[in-house]
Here is the input.
Amino acid sequence: MSRPKYIHLNGELVAWEDAKVHVSPGAFKFGAAVFEGIRGYWNPEHEQMYLFRLDDHMRRLTHSQVFMRFDSIVDTTEIAEQTLELIRANELRENIHILSTTFVDGIGGPSTSGPIGVSITSGPWAGAARIENGCSAQVSSWQRAADTALPMRVKCNANYQNGRLAAVQAEADGYDTAILLNSRGKVSEGPSMCFFMIRDGKAITPGTSNDILESITRQTMLDILPEMCGVEVIERDVDRSELLMAEEAFFCGTAWEVTPVTSIDRVPLGTGEVGPIVKKLQQSYFDLTNGRTNLHPDWLTKVY
Ligand code: PMP
Here is the structure.
């Protein structure tokens, strides 16, 4: 992993080597932290870096802090400003990934809720090969944690252990990743990405009451599938058996962008190749995130 010069820690730019926290606080012991992963796209023609939907990420970070009942809620307009300051200090001029975390820095038992620390990291992040070639998915025997247990709607670090169990098992079994079903046996999402499938030319995705994160990329898909690809989208429950009838499918998320799913449980979807709707959607998404269209200019924050 490359190491940019600076990290933002508790309101200050500090050298990578000096960005340290103690092992005792609740964040480390109990996973009492919430975060956002955000992407920046470098457009060489514009000589500009665009952060995709920064305001929406900051809004969700506020909700996560409130939901987790942190003693104090860090002002996310400050985090947004510090994010820009960090990228400029690191002189990043390529595609990047940013991680903004607010965490319980207090020492005590599991209910300790403050004081709250803040860290922001940023570094280069090239796209993955799976974006072009697609990926294979296993329907996991691990169940998505229920809203009444550990709500997936909240982007809390501890939630990621649920998806991690599914991802590690899928990889051990020779798949690229997993699809989790929820406690009702309906399709929820992947370990760190939402799921869509195409049937009869229409896009179908589980609704937000299926134990999924309220993903910003998913919302982007709901908007741009009709707008930019002429494809209708339906939000509804999806049964496991229906997965294998999909003509095409894809995962989406900040990190996964728009990644084709070409097989599920070793059954090829459609032709088993990346399909035309997913290809068109990828093109539209990257045009949008890289500032190559005039649609939704409010979704892009300029760094320079
Ligand atoms: N679901 C989960 C569980 C995730 O961790 C992520 C990544 N944040 C997503 C979906 C995609 O969310 P977003 O589009 O907001 O990155």
